[in-house]
Amino acid sequence: MAISIEDVYSAADRLSESGQQPTLAAVRSALGGGSFTTISEAMKSWRAMQQAAATPVREAAPTAVMERLNQLGADVWAVAISMANDRLTKEREAFESAKADMELAHKEAAELADQMAAELESMRKQLEQQGTLLRSAQEAAQTTQAALTEAQRRTDGLSELLERERALSKEMQAKAEKAIADAARLAGKLEVLEAQGCQGS
Fold it and tell me: pLDDT tens for residues 182-196?
């Protein structure tokens, strides 16, 4: 049975699809025999077709196509530049607005800091004045407390002296009452003696 070129192509395709190298021996084995000369000639044309299929077609684009592509590229580039400029303008405006907001916030913060510093200074002076007043009040309180202590001491001394005077007055009153009683008794006895003397004479 004669081996045709189509048979060689089919065997080489099967070997290539299965991942094997389609050598002359492999193709002849896949065919089950055949003339090396026939297989060799068929494989040359098969490899040429495979190489042609694998090599991409490279051909310069027509001038009209290139001009159209260049014009399209220029239009796309112009649109891209315009979009970039618009975006840059918007970003610059946003930046300027943010910068103005930051400057305003910084100014307000500085003014608030100055105000707080002035308030703190005023509070410090008030605290110093209150501290002076407090020290004066404390000194006055200490003086008053010392005066009260002295007055209490004197009051206690006067109370003790008054109690002594009262006790002495009671004692003197008792002695006076006893002297009056004794004088009355003596007067009575004297009257009795005088009466007896008158009767004897």
Answer: 888 888 888 888 888
**Full-model pTM:** 0.32
Q: Could you tell me if 144 and 85 lie in one domain?
A: yes
Which residues neighbour 45 within 8 Å (Cβ) at sequence distance 6 or greater? 5
Angle of helix 36-54 relative to helix 5-17, nearest 10 degrees, comes to 60
| Structural domain of 87 | 76-159
> Which contiguous run of DSSP H or E holds residue 32?
none
Are residue 124 and residue 87 in the same domain, yes or no? yes
**DSSP letter string over 105-174?**
HHHHHHHHHHHHHHHHHHHHHHHHHHHHHHHHHHHHHHHHHHHHHHHHHHHHHHHHHHHHHHHHHHHHHH
Looking at the structure, tell me whether residues 39 and 112 fall in a common domain.
Answer: no
Give the containing element (helix H, strand E) for 24.
Answer: helix 24-31
Q: Within a domain: residue 68?
A: no
Distances (CA, A) of 122 to 90, 110, 172: 47, 18, 73
Asked whether residue 167 is assigned to any structural domain, the reply reads no
Highest mean pLDDT among 29-43, 84-98, 116-130, 138-152: 29-43
